[in-house]
Design goal:
- This protein is mostly beta strands.
- It contains one helix and eight strands, in the order αββββββββ.
- The strands form two sheets. A four-stranded antiparallel sheet has the order 1-8-3-6, with no helix packed on it.
- The longest helix is centred in the first third of the chain and has 7 residues.
- The protein is globular and about 45 Å long.
- The two termini are 30 Å apart.
């Protein structure tokens, strides 16, 4: 017995959602002020990012920091907000966003209120979807 993988069958097999996670690290001794930016390329086999969350691994000696998300052409997808706005919550697994996935990078902008005394490390996860 064998399976016939036609384009229609393959499309039906394609996933509708995926979580894409990347670790972001800001080194110890990074000064306060100015915006740090991490670049992420989202999986272009999906149409949109519909959610985002972070899980902090190491706080970098900071009580808080602020994040925003924009793309490499300057479209702002989330305003600068306290890290708790993005943190994983069992009541709401993702902060809702609507980011079209096109051939450009996502910039996670990080505003540090003071210098880091240790590495700041967190996972950032995007919920990617195909609506079709």
């Amino acid at each position: 017995m064998y399976w016939l993988f036609t384009p229609i069958f393959l499309k039906a097999m394609s996933r509708k959602t995926r979580e894409q996670t990347q670790v972001i690290t800001i080194p110890s001794g990074t000064p306060a002020g100015g915006i740090q930016a991490a670049k992420i390329t989202l999986d272009t086999s999906f149409e949109r990012a519909e959610g985002v969350n972070i899980v902090e691994i190491a706080a970098g000696g900071l009580a808080y920091y602020r994040l925003s998300i924009q793309d490499s052409v300057g479209n702002v997808h989330t305003d600068m907000a306290h890290k708790k706005t993005y943190e994983f919550d069992p009541e709401r697994a993702y902060k809702e966003v609507d980011i079209p996935i096109v051939d450009r990078q996502i910039l996670v902008r990080i505003d540090l209120p003071e210098a880091t005394t240790a590495a700041l490390v967190f996972d950032i996860s995007f919920k990617l979807t195909n609506r079709g």
